Amino acid sequence: MNVLIVDDNEAATDLLQELLTLQNHTARCTYTAQQALDAAAAESFDAALIDLTLPDFPGTEVARRLRASTTAGTPRLLVAISGFSAEDAVVEAAKGLFDHHLQKPIDIEQLERILAQPLP
Length: 120
Prior knowledge:
It contains 5 helices and 5 strands; from the N terminus they run E-H-E-H-E-H-E-H-E-H. The protein is an alpha/beta fold.
């Protein structure tokens, strides 16, 4: 599976990329919302892991734009990642845009179960 990772915490994003690579996925790191949208326009991804709080605009806006995209390689599986719990208002607002939510630190086994499911 080809995964787009979007998070402004570069060290955590790079580590997640390494872990996904070890699990036989390919992954590309982006650190801003705009970088993520540019990457999604240029490359085909199966899934996107998107931090809800990005420096240029919220991860929810990235998800909205990806969902609205008609580009063939747009990720079909969107996973919100955040330090917020599932009950937080930020996560509540994102529920209709994402297929799953993972709270940081990400449980890599839970992520692998999500990635192993058939794409929506």
